[in-house]
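Budget justification aside, the reviewers requested a transparent look at the raw inputs and outputs of the sequence design task funded under Objective 1. We therefore reproduce one unedited record. The lines immediately below are the structure tokens for a 179-residue chain.
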């Protein structure tokens, strides 16, 4: 929006998506997995709120597939696939943070199922993770791809995002394993 608005209706995102594809920001093979409405908080902002929000996807009100664990990693031929995981803190506040891990298929064959692993350097606890299924035991975290995002073409990437909390230390992991 370039100016103030009190409501928006019949907003078709297809033109925005087509422009983003033409600029190379996104790929046509990617899925829309989330739609949000609201506002960003800033110093001095007051009186802002969202009263209602609804979305009709594809004209038929379709829903996202139910997440389920992916099969264990396997190759579609040409040797075992390899991948990398890159951890980045995208936002932080006292006692909490948001981070992401970008998984990239670095092999010449499809990666059918992927698994990330890392050990936090502090006392972080994940409280909400999207685009994956996770387990956390102490500082150790394991994330696997879901049925709708568990396959990566050669050179393709996927992103797992999450929010978490910490009591005393938010030290990122030294490395992320990917298989």
């Amino acid at each position: 929006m370039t100016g103030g608005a009190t409501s928006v209706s019949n907003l078709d995102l297809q033109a925005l998506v087509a422009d983003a594809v033409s600029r190379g920001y996104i790929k046509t093979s990617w899925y829309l997995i989330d739609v949000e409405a609201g506002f960003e908080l800033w110093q001095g902002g007051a009186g802002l709120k969202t009263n209602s929000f609804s979305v009709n996807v594809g004209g038929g009100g379709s829903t996202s597939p139910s997440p389920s664990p992916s099969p264990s990693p396997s190759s579609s031929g040409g040797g075992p696939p390899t991948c990398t995981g890159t951890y980045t803190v995208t936002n932080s506040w006292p006692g909490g943070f948001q981070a992401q891990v970008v998984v990239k298929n670095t092999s010449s064959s499809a990666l059918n199922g992927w698994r990330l692993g890392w050990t936090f350097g502090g006392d972080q606890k994940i409280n909400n993770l999207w685009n994956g299924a996770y387990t956390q035991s102490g500082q150790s975290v394991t994330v696997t791809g879901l049925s709708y995002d568990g396959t990566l073409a050669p050179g393709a990437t996927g992103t797992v995002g999450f929010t978490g909390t910490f009591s005393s230390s938010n030290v990122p992991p030294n490395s992320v394993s990917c298989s």
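Residues 59-78 have pLDDT under 50 and may be disordered. Residues 129 and 162 are 4 Å apart (CA to CA). Computational costs for records of this kind are itemized in the attached budget.
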